[in-house]
Every structure is written in C-alpha cells, then in structure tokens.
Amino acid sequence: MAKRALSETEIDQATILRADKKIKLQDEKTPEPKTAGVPSDTIPLSNNNYTVGWICAITTEYVAAQAFLDETHGEPEHLATNDDNIYTLGKIGKHNIAITVLPHGEYGTASAAAVGTHMRHSFPNIRIGLMVGIGGGAPSRKHDIRLGDIVVSTPRDGKGGVIQYDFGKTIQDQCFRLTGFLDQPPLLLRTAVNALKAKYEVDGHQIEGAINAVFDKRPRLRKNYQRPDPKSDILYLADVVHSASEDESCEHACGPNDSPKIVSRPPRDKEEDNPAIHYGMIASGNQLMKDALIRDKLAAEQDILCFEMEAAGLMNYFPCLVIRGICDYSDSHKNKKWQGFAAMAAAAYAKDLLYRIPPSKVEAEKKITDIISNVQEAVTEVSKEIHNLLHRHHAEEDEEILDWITPVDYTPQQNDFIKRRQPGTGQWLLDSEEFRAWVEGKGQGLFCPGIPGAGKTILAAIVIDDLCAKFQGGSDTCVAFIFCNFRRHHQQKFEDLLASLLKQMIQQQPSVPDDIKQLYGRQKKRRTRFSTDELSRMLQATTKLFSRTFIVIDALDECRKTNGCRKSFVDDLFNLRANYGVNLFTTSRFVPDILDAFKTYTSLEIRAHGDDVRRYLGGCMPQLPAFVHRNPGLQDEIKDGIVDAVDGMFLLAQLYMASLTDKVTKKAIKYALHQFRKQTADQDEDAKLQVLSEAYEQALDRIKAQKTGYRQLGERTLLWIACAKRPLTVSELRHALAVELETDKVDDDNIPETEDMVCACAGLVTVDEESKIIRLVHYTMQEYFSRNRHNLFTEGEESMAKTCVTYLSFSVFSVGPCISDQALESRLEKNLLYDYAARNWGYHAQKPSVSTKKLILKFLTSTNLLSASCQAMLAVKLFTGDTEYARRVPERMTAVHIAAHFGLSNLIRYVAGIYEIDSRNSHGRTPLSVASEHGHNDVVTILLEKEGIDINVKDTTHSRSPLSWAAGNGHSKVCQSLLARDGIEPESRDSGGRTPLSWAAGNGQADVVRLLLRQGGVSPNSKATWWNKGRTPLLQAAANNHELVVKLLVDSERVGCDSMDDDGRTPLSFLAQHGCELISKQLLSRDDVNPDCMDKSGRTPISWAAQYGQQGLVKMLLTNNQVNPNACDSNGFSALTWAAKQGHEMVVRLLLEKKGVLKNSQDADGRTALAWAVKSGHVHIIETLLSQEEVNPNIKDKFGQAPLSWAAQNMRAGSVNRLLDKDGIDPESRDGNGRTTLSWVAGNGDPILTKKLIEMHGVDVNFKDRLGRTPLSWAAENGHQTIVELLLAKECIDAICKDSSDRTPVSWAAKNGHESIVNLLLADDRVAPSPPEFTSSVPSEEQKTAIKGPWVSDWPRSRRSYGGQPSKDMIPEGVGNRATVPRTRSESPPSRRKRRFSTDVVHINRSKPDLSDEHQGFHVVIPRRTSGKYTLDNFEIHRTVGTGSFGRVYIAQSRFNQRFYAIKVWKKSQVVKMKQVTHTNDERRVLSNVKHTFLVWLWGTWQDWRNLYMVMGFVEGGELFSLLRKAGRFPNQVAKFYAAEVILALEYLHSKNFIYRDIKPENILLDRHGHIKLTDFGFAKLVPHKTWTVCGTPDYLAPEVVAGKGYNKSVDWRSSDIKAHPWFEEVNWQRLGTKDIDPPYTPPIAAGRGDASQFDRYPEDNDILGSAEGNDNYLHLFPDF
Predict the structure, then answer these.
(1) Which residues are annotated as a binding site for ATP?
(2) Per the residue annotation, which of 768, 990, 1558, 1636 is the catalytic one?
(3) What is the phi-psi region of residue 1313: left when phi exceeds 0, alpha when psi lies from -120 to 50, beta otherwise?
(4) Helix/strand/coil percent split, the chain, to 5
(5) Which of 364, 1330, 1394, 1460 has the most CB atoms less than 10 A away?
C-alpha cells in the first residue's frame, strides 16, 4: 500500500500549497484584483456551477489531478465556515470540477471525512464524487494485479464496493477485523464504469498515451511521474518480510530479482492492457496494510483487490467512486518510485470516465448535500447519537443498577434496522402533518397501523432515528423505544417492558436517581427485582425529570397477551401520555382490540410508499444478472412492475426481488413481473397474506431445486431458525449445523460459513449485524412455518433434540459443573451452543423416537454430564457484578427432576425405575414440585399415581408446596389435579405466610382464584407475614392492579373488603391509585368500606388517586360525603398538593371546583400547591391556580421562599411571568437569604424578566441581600453584560456599593475575568477610576506584583499565627518531629487573617481556599497570558532539581525580583521523537487554565530554537515520595491528610473537566509548610465526556486505562463520592481547603527562600541551555509556548 512518505519534491509542493493557503485567506480578508500569476483560462464561476467533486489524499495525487484538467478556473468565490480545504477549480469535457487534497501529513478515514464534508458545504451543487489516487494492490491467482494498474471500486454481492477494516496491529501475523460495508457509489457512476469497461474490452484504452501527452505539455512532471523500469515491479512471497531498517533497499535486504523469494510472473503481451484495469472491492482502513499474509487472507475471504486509507471515511459523508492506481503490494517492501505513475494512471482513467457522462445526466442526479441530509448513510454517527443519548456517563455502580433493572438492550436492534434503510426511505412519514403535529405537541399519541410486511418496523426505526437527531445532546428530552417480537416473549413480559423503558430513561440522566439507588440497595440483598407496581411508580417519577418524553412502541400486536400483559402495558402507556405528557408512537397490525384501544388517537396508516419501494429496489439491482445492469430501461421496468404488484406490502418487494435473481433472460423477467401483477390485482389483506404464502412456497421450491449440499444446508438452517425456542445468534446456529451424531466434539472443518447459510435460504433469512441474530425476514414467515410445520419439518423437532443432546454429551463436559462464575462463563463462551442446548433440549424432545430415547437416557444417566447441563440451564446472573451465581444452582438434580422440568411425560416412566421418584435436590425441590411450577400436568398426573409421593412437600428456600407453585404461575389444570388428591393442604403457607390463594391473587391468576375459592378449607383473608406484611389475597390483587381478581374476591362475599396491611393500606387505597373505577364504585357502595381511611403515612384514597392523576376516581370520591378532600398526610400534603406537584391539571381543576377545598393549604415545609406547581414547572397548573381569587401567591415556606422566589431561582421564566401578572403579587418578596426576584433573575441572566422587573413600581434595584449584595453585583459576578447594561441605565443604580466582603460589582467581575463588564463599569461616571485608598492612578507595588507576577520586586508578607487548635483528629503522630528547625517570624505558617486590597482591580480570592504566597492577589482584569515575554536571560539558573525522559527542571532566580522559580526545560527534538507533542501542549494548556492552592502555579512559558521553557512556582519541600521512602510507610492519619489534600486538588480539576491520570508520590510536592502541591501535568487532559488514550506510569495505571473501553474522571479515583467514604468521615474539608489544619510534617528548610536541600542532586547538562543559535524546525508544533 502507499507508504505516504513524501519525497523532497512533494515536500516543496506541500510548502507551496501552504503558502497558497495563506494567500487565499488574506485575499478573503481584503479583496484585491486577481494577479497575473494565477492561472485562469476562464472567468471564475460561481460555486454553484461545480457539479463534480474530486478528492486526493496526498500531493502526488493532487498534482496528477490538476495535470489532466482541460482548463483551470480562478479561486472559489467563497468558502463555507471552517472550510480549510485548498481547491483547484477547472473543467474536464463539459464538467466543472472542484479538486481538493487532504491536509499535509494527515491521512486516514477521519481526515477524508472532514475534507469531504467541507467540500459539499462550500460547493453545494456537487452531484457526483471521485476519490482518485494511489493504493496498495492485492495480487492473487484470480487477479493479476501489477504496479501501475488501476482498481475501480465496484459493488458486488450487495456490498458497496468499499469495505472498512481495522487492525489490532499492523505488523506481520497480527489480526484484523472488518468493521462494515459502506454505501455504493451513485448509480450514474456505476453505469458509466460499466459503459467504459465495455468500450475498453472492444477497443482497448489509451491511458498511457494520455499520460505521455501530459508530459509533452508539462515536461517537468516526467521525472517523478513517468512509468518506472518494469524490472522494479517485484512481488515477493507473502512470508518474506522487509528488513526492520526502512532505509535498506529491497534488493539488498530481501534478495535480487532472480531470488527464489520472488513470485514469478510472465510479462504481459501486446494484446493485454497495460496498465490493466480491475473492477471489484477496495478495503479501506485507518492504518497502513503492510502485512502480505493478512493481505492475502483478507483478499481471499472478501475478494479484495486494493487497500487504501481514505475511502471509508469519505463514503458516508461524500458518496463517490474510488479509483486507485497501484503503487505497491500492501506489504513491507518499498515501491515509492511507482507512486507518481500510479497517480497519473488513476487520474487518466477518471478523466476518460467523465468524458463518458453527459452533463445532463449529472444535473439529473441528486445533490450530495440533499442525499446526506435525508438518508441514513452515516450509520456510525447515528449509532453514536443513540449511544450518547442512551449511554451517558455512569459510574460502575450505576451500570450495575441498570443491568439489574433489565439486561435487555434494544439499541442494537435499532442500529440494525436503520442500517437497512435506503436513502430517503420514510421521508413521507416524517413530512406528514400528523407526524409533525405529534412531534411539536406534548402528550400526543400517533397510532400507525399497517398490514403485515408494510415496513412498520423500519419506519419505527426511522422515527426513533429522527427523534434522536432532533434532540441529540438535550438532557431534558428523552427518547425510549421497544420493538415487540413474538419470538422474544420470554424477554417481554409486562414487567420487562416497563423495566426497559425505565432503564432507557435513566440512561439519559446524568446518574441513577437516588430513590432507585436506595431501592436497589434494599433489594440487592434479597436478590429480588422491582415489582410491577414499583416499576410503574419509578417510571412515572423518572418521566418527570424530562421536559419532553417520546416513547416508540413497534409491533404492539406481537406483545404477549397472556396474563393481561398487553392490556396492562397499554394502560400504563396511556397513563404516561395522559398524566405525564408523554408522546406515544405505536405501530401494529389491524388487530380489533388494539384498534379499539387506540380509537381516540390520531391514526396514520402505514403502507409501503412507492418511492420507498423504488429506492429499495434500486439498491438491490446489483444482485440481479449482468444483463440487467447494462439495461437501465429494464431496471425501471422492474421497479415499476414490482411497485405496482406489492400494493403497500414492502415484504413482497423483497421476496419478488429475490425471485428474479435466477432469471437469465429479459423475457423471463418480464414474465415474472406479469405474474406478480396478476397475483396481487385488487386483493384484500387476507388475499395478500395468501400471496405471501405463495411467495414463501416458491422460495422453498427454489431451495429444493439447489444442488444437494446447498439444499440440505438451506433446509437445516430454516429448520433451526423456525423451530428454535428463542432467536439464535449466527455463531450458535453454525455450531448447531456442525454437530454430527455419535461424535465427541464439533469438527471445525464442518462449520458452515454464514454467507453460505444465508445464500442457501433463497432470501428467506437475514442477519442483524449488531446483535448477530440470524432470523427469518418477517414474522409472517414464522406464521407460515408454524401453520405448515408438520409438512415442512416432519422430523424437525426430533432432529434438533438429537443435536442438542449430542452436544451436551461431548466429553469436554464430562468433568461436571464449573466451580466458579468465571469458569462457567468461559465454558459458555467456548462452547457456543451449550447455553441453548441445556435450556431447550427437552422442549424439542416431547415426542422422541426409540433411538432418541436411547440417546437421551444415556445422557441422563451420566451424573457429570447431567450436573453440568443443569448448571448451564438454571444459572441466572441477576445483574452485572452478581457473584457466586454459578453455585446457587441446586445440586442433586436427578433425571426425574429434569424430565419434570421439561414435561417429558414419555421419559418420566423410564427414569422413575432408576431414580427415587420423590427425591429432593439441594433446595428441597421434588420432581412433583418442579413439574407443578412449570405446569406440566401430564407429568404431575404420572407422579401422583406413584406410591410414596408427598403432595404437600415444601422446598427449603421458600417453604412453598407444589400447589403454591402451580397457583402462583396460573397452572389451573395442575391445581385441579393436586386438589383432587386426598390429603392436599390447600391453605399451605410458605415462609412469608402466603397461601396458594395469595400467590394466585397477587399474580392475577383469575382461573386459579375461582378454583381455590370453591375449595373447602381455603381462607380468603389470610395475611402475609414477611414481604408485603399484612396483605390479604384481596390486597395482593389490588396492589398489583388485577381488577378481575379483585372483583372475584369481592363478589365471593367471603373477604374483608376494608382490610388493612401493615402499612395501613386498604383495597380501595390501591384501587384508587391504579384508577380501577368499576370495582372502586362497587366497594364505595358497601357499608363496610371506609372511603376516607388513612394509612400509616396519613394518606387517604383520594390522596393516592390525586397523586397518580386518576381523574375518574377523584371525581367519584369527591361525590362521597365521607371523603375529606383537605386531609393531609404526614408530610402535610393534601390531595390538591399532590395533584399540583405531579402535574395533573384535570385533577387540580376537579379539586378547585369542590366547595370547601383549601386552596392555600401548606405542607410540613410550608409550601402550597402553587409553590409545588412552580417548583415542578407545571405552567398550565400555575395558570389554573392563579385564576382562583383565593389563591395567595405570596405565601412563604419555612425557608422564606414564596412561589415567585422559587421560580426565579430555578430559572423558570414562564412561571415568573405568570406570577408577576397576578394581582397582588409581591415582586420584592425576599427569600431566607434576603434575595429578591430581581436579584435571582439578574444573577441568572434573564434580560427580559430583568427589564420587566426594573420597570415595575416598587422594585428596589439597589436592594441588598444578607450578604450585602445587589442585583448588579450578582450580574457582574456571573458575566451577564446585558443585565449590567440594563441596571446601569437606571439613574438611581448604586454602581459602587460594597457588600459585606468589601467587594464592589467591578471587583466581582474582575475576580471571574469578565473584562468587558469591568470596562463597562469603569466607563460609568458613577464608578471611581481608582480605589478610594489610592489617590494616585499609578498602581502600587503590590498591585504591580499581583498583576505582573515575577517581573517586579516582592513585598513583605504577613504570616498567620496559629490561633486556635487544629483538629486533633487530623494531627497524627508525625514521621519525625513536627519541626526540625526553629521557625523565625518570617517563616511562620500563614495566618488566618488574610490581607485585603481595597481595590476594584486587584483583590484576594476570598471565596476559595487561601492561595499560597506567590499566588495571592493574582486575579486581574486582564486575562492571564503566559507566553512570549520571558527569556533565559531573565533568570539565573542555579541547579537541576529533577530530570525526565526528554528534559529537566531547574531552580532559577529572577533577575528582576530575586524570587525563586522552577523552570521546566524540554528538548524539542526529544519531545517530537518520543511523540509527546500533544501531552506537552496539553500540560501548558491545563496549567494555564487552573489555579488552586494545592496545584503548582504556572507563571509563563517561552521557547527558543532548541527548547521549551515553563516557569512555575518553586515548591521548597521536595517530593512526597522522598518522605515516604524515608518513613517506609505512613501512619493511617498521615496518609489520610495527604490523600485528603490530593482529593481537593483532583476535585477542582474535575470541576474544570480536566483529568490528571498520573497520581503518584513522585508528582506530589510539599510546600515549605508541609501542604501538598500537585505537579507534572504531562498526562492531564480536558475530557468533558470520555477518552480512550492509554497513558500514565505503568505501576500506577488505573484499570480503566488499560481496559480499552474508555474512561472519564473515574481514572483518578474509583468512587463517585469519595469524600463521603467512612475513612474520611472526620475530615473537616472546609478547614483543610483553607490550610487551616496543620500538616503532620514540616520540611526542614533551613536556608529560607530558594532552599533546594529537599531535592536530590543530579549531574548537570550544560549543553541543554546552550545559547548557540540554530534552525527551529519545530516552532509550528508548539504555537502557544
């Protein structure tokens, strides 16, 4: 492959380009007449006149491209913002072309993507793109590729012509991986390539002649661009690696031309094209392909012809044709001399191609900008958007919680679906009025039904993608989605669906909400999960964290109906929409009960849109025979015919297209199209489904017509996919198909390839690329197979059972179960079918033949094989971080247990004679218990016939009987069989006091409840004694919203309808919460039910109904005279307060209409309903409450805040406006801190509200809060210039008033660096030009020092005397004596009394920890600048105090102020050689932007021709490492002190989004008093989100750094709240941050300032500071020094 090393000529050319770029930029600033030196054959054209974009990677390619222009134009008339590309404009034939090149020294996909993006922004009318240049060939027996040949990217087998790959390493024998197939070049270019190919086959090409013609015009190009001597075209054997020395020639290092290491190739004869042109796949990656072995492997597997580095980045941002001239063989050998000719050959071909394309055809193409804006080409970017939206930064604990909520992730499915989208598909839906109204409104519902195969799922994915694009990065908008799938019912129970929505919502928050963390902490100990009730509540609470929430549910008709799952899910979704403003988008088939449920929703039917089908068919054309490719008219006829035939059913288009692949004549295709139209003419949905069935039958016929091998592979693949009990991954299916009966392991040579499996199935299966699931193309096909299973797969289930049992019987499992979680996980990873086989073999063996029974019995009688299989079958990892789960599996599982588990009634009789029929496993479970739990009534019947069976046996984990298990799971037939036995105990209680009736009622099992209520001896009022203590069956059913069961129990007249659990909750309380109106009405009609009963938290039914927005229940309860609507709970919340807080407007209206309702009721904290509505941001409820005359808007809570103050503080502008418009509002209301509304809005930067307030009568613009601060003071501190201008416009404004800290507004502005505000204030006549204390305008010496740092002399410093006692807890026994040298007055520790400057320009930072001596007062108006003014002559260098890999640190003394500094010196050449340029610049950048008492201080930087210099404060106390080395180890309290100070330093860095990444004792210095200073920021970096760089000191690297999964601030410490760790419980962080706690050790600094005795001595290197001048080759690399 091209090595990208530039020749001297190229470097000169690159220099010229840089110069051109500077000229271009200057011209843009100052337009001047075009100079005569600019080549121009025509007047410059508008950017819109250019329709062809041509991109080059290196200068050689750029020169070749320009050489083939027929004419050149002037400079572009303008460039898009941020476009740094350099363009050559010109014409080839009749095409206007813009040519650009990647920046000098930048290669790879990312750089190409940026260049392509800029080009299409600057030239918006570009319609076709070319990537023309050099590449590395991949010669093979099939493809005789030689140097100078040309490779043109050509789609093949549905792949776009360019594939992307990534390397783990790029040296010999290392691995690679494919990362995706990229989109195809535009159809026009593909057609032109075919036309030119045909011409070349007939007449040959004249490429070399065209190149020579260029040399005739431009002779100077001949030297570097002509064809080299053919003898230099040498192809070495793949295992021959070039010497490590790149300067050594191949002939010398690898052997001469006649060496046996060389591949012998005959010369091309005169009849052959030379250079030859090859058409096929090009592989593109971010690293050079330099390994011949990998080249050959990838070329063989993917039929690759060429390797290069840019196209992969370009294709998704600038769809183009890739043309590569071959300059090397993608190996370690050099062929640089061929680069010029290869570039010329590629450019010549591109020119010839353009001549074959009529301009009118180009104009007819879509603009690339339009394509990019409407299509899902940038799949990688979309994945990133969804990933960023759904996976924001979570600590490890948060990830564990999310996994505990549910391990299911729908994002891979979304990415798979969106990848299949053709450009522009679904735009009709996104542009529809219904969809736009749905997006723009709040609480909207859009129901999109469609016939099977209409494309509902793809359109749902497009909707999700569109929402993610619209709201990406917005933390206040949530997008959650679920793809229902009838094959995933085990993952899509009601609680699973709620959990998935909850998980996605939490992932879009910065961290897991505290209430969920607390619940997780409680339930983790019990190894339980959320109940459905808890999930509903958490979902509602989390929804309120967003201003907008969108939920997309696809294929609701495939959601399971059993146990009321679908109905409960729909009810919860409707509740979220109605009461929480969720926007709900749903797709479904035309199912009556679903249509009825959504009858009030806006409906938009989904049908396969003609344009969408046409786009899809266009993308599939490459799959058809070659004669179709050459006939555009026939292609249009195919599109028209299929679009007409499918009539809204997208799936038919897919099937019809697949059926055309074997048609070899035009007549055959036309006949097929006629049949398609005939089949679907004027048919209803049922008839179309029949057409689908016929299409499936035809596809099966095509499979059967294949050769034997492919036929068998296709049939077995379809069998497994159709009959598997869950979706299979590709790897699982490949292993399944490789299993041979009566073998002991999988033979790797028998594993089929995925492509062959898919191909053999004739278009009926597809592979989801992200999830790696192989599936049928549509669920209607599954329905077809289910209907015809016995005809299609006569012995299918038995075959699968044999395969599974054979797999489970492999000798590798004969060692038995694994002893650890890791061992089990390793077993499952290495044996890919083991998990499926262990969990499902029995379901395939329900009707075994004699031979299958023998195979199964042999397996069951092997103790070790059986135990290993049971472990894989029953082990469940509940959440990430769950441990010992492999050992929680019950032991002593016999063959009878397993037969009972799977319901193998045919086998139970065989194994019953071998094993004890009533044996218990280690959990006390018998086969009868297991069979009862799983509902296998046939097995239960057989077991009950056996003598000695204990029908009431209880397990040892929960004490549940077989009847309890059956009842809880709703197995009514099993319950009947058990209840029919004498001696059954129907009231059997488990360890939690729950009976079978309790379990059945709590789980909503209505049939079982009926059965048990008819049974004698069953108490309907039994109470649970542990979990949900005190709940009766009725309470269990009511709590879980099982309305039918509640009615059954109430109608039985045997239950206590007003019973209470231990929390005081009644059935009516739960029913009111869930909104069950009918049964609630029935209960309210009973005399024994108290409608106003309070639970232990003081809540009544109306309180619960109001909180959850149950409008009907609230209305019903308000009509009952016994209900007190003003009842308050233990927190003082009334029903009105709950409704206002939760945002239920209709409930609020109902309560306000009720006579006697207290509208100003205050809770325990004094907050009213209005205050809660304001705090929660419910604007409509605020308006409703303010419309009531009785509502008092000025009531303050116990913290002194009125609703207006809450709204202003929380920046809720809409609420503030509405409150200010209320009659009687007090705009001057002050909160507990004395702040007014104006103070808050000014400080928060709202100019509109500020203007409104200062114009209101009675508002005091100079009012001071408890800190003495005015609105102007807050606005100035926070940098709100517009607010400052508004306030200064008031004549009465006090612009110089001082607060209690003696600060003025200008002082606050200066403190935070708001220069423009300082200047604005100083320009005001009311602000004194100099401080009152200084009559002169000349700054004092102290001011000068504060401003200029080490330039001027020092001033005397007052030190603090240690008044008061430091914390005893923080004074451990020192390493030695606290002070080894008597301390003089000037050396005493700093005083608590801080020196103040009474000046508005320079001041002490009083709001942060006290700065060290040399930092005090360094807060000035002028932004801190640290470059360009120092030189080495300004300092006297004393000695070295530290050394590193490419520099050293000196102690130096300023010649100006005689103070001491540390100067860090780097040799530039070493920095560049060690590739530390970025880290060095980062260190300067970080230090320039931080200032903290525990961080080393940067005074300034400079550079000369040899070195970089950094001036820092000198820290006399030496390294903490030296102290630790002397002490051996620190006592606990000493370690705690230093760790705590480090934590404060890191906490500050993290607050600025910097991470440090190099914590170690060597990087921690001690100042003269013993406090720490963090130094050496070489690995520090600005990381707002996440980084992947591996760097740091090896012995101290954090696990996150080397894990390769990205990391953030956790790299510096492992806990998100480390200060709360019990070890730091005694630390007074405030005092520590102000250095108010004495360190445990004081360095023995005897010589005062500049004493370097605590640092080791090093040999001096005088050469590094030499003054001799030289050439500076690296100045441009360090622009900020």
Answers:
(1) 1464
(2) 1558
(3) left
(4) 45, 10, 45
(5) 1460
Q: What is the DSSP letter of 102?
A: P
User: Class of the 1144-1318 domain?
Assistant: mainly alpha
- Which helix (DSSP H) or strand (DSSP E) does residue 760 occupy? helix 754-760
pLDDT tens digits, residue range 390-443? 444 445 667 778 888 888 888 888 888 887 777 778 888 888 989 999 998 888
Residue 905 CA to its chain's centroid (Å)? 48
User: Per residue, what are the HEC states of 1352-1420?
Assistant: CCCCCCCCCCCCCCCCHHHCCCCCCCCCCCCCCHHHCCCCCCCCCCCCCCCCCCCCCCCCCHHHCCCCC
Residues 727 and 835: their CA atoms lie apart, in Å, by 13
Closest alpha carbon to 198 in 298, 309, 279: 279
Tell me the C-alpha distance between 604 and 611, whole Å. 18
The pTM score is 0.53
Q: Which residues are annotated as a binding site?
A: 1464
d(CA 1560, CA 1572): 12
CB 1261 within 8 A of CB 1287: yes
Question: How many other C-beta atoms lie within 10 A of the C-beta of residue 1156?
Answer: 7
C-beta separation of 1249 from 1216 below 8 A: yes
CB contact at 8 A, 469 and 479: no
Residue scoring higher pLDDT (1096 or 538): 1096
Tokens 């039985």 belong to residue: 1052
Q: Tokens standing for 902?
A: 């799977």
Grade residue 1122 by pLDDT with cuts at 50, 70 and 90: very high
Supply angle C-alpha 171, 174, 177, rounded to 5.
Answer: 115
* CATH fold for the domain made of 375-603: Rossmann fold (3.40.50)
pLDDT of residue 381: 45
Give the integer Cα–Cα distance in Å for 842 and 805.
9
Buried b (16+ CB within 10 A) or exposed e, 427-453: bebeeeeebeebbeeeebbbbbbbbbb
**Which pLDDT tens digit goes with each residue over 1245-1293?**
889 999 999 988 878 999 999 999 999 999 999 999 999 999 998 878 8
Instruction: Return d(Cα 877, Cα 881) in angstroms, integer.
Output: 9
* Residue 1407, token pair as written in the block: 């709001």
CA–CA distance, 1407 with 1410 (Å, rounded to integer): 9
Q: How many residues does the chain have?
A: 1681
Residue that is written with structure tokens 């507004």 in the block = 1305
Convert the pLDDT of each residue in 1571-1625 to its tens digit.
Answer: 999 998 888 888 888 888 777 777 777 777 777 678 888 888 754 457 667 888 8
Would you state the pLDDT for residue 16? 34
pLDDT higher than 90, residue 685: no
- Is 157 part of the annotated catalytic residue set? no
In whole angstroms, what is the distance from residue 1176 CA to residue 1107 CA?
Answer: 14
Note the Cα 989 to chain centre separation in Å.
Answer: 47
Of the candidates 1177, 1142, 1172, the residue with the CA atom closest to the CA atom of residue 1159: 1172
Helix (H, G, I), strand (E, B) or coil at 1453: strand
Identify the CA nearest to 846 among candidates 899, 794, 806, 896: 899
Could you confirm whether domain 9-372 is CATH 3.40.50.300?
A: no
pLDDT at 473: 57
Could you give the count of Cα atoms lying within 13 Å of 319 in the half-sphere of its Cβ?
26
CB atoms within 10 A of CB 527: 13
Q: What is the mean pLDDT of residues 380-397?
A: 46
In 1434-1574, beta strands by DSSP E: 1435-1443, 1447-1454, 1460-1467, 1498-1503, 1507-1513, 1554-1555, 1564-1566, 1572-1574
Question: Residue 133 — φ and ψ, nearest 5°?
Answer: 175, -150
Q: Which residue has the higher pLDDT, 1466 or 471?
A: 1466
Find all residues with CB under 8 Å of 1489, minimum gap 6, and list them.
1552, 1554
Structure tokens at 1483: 């260190």
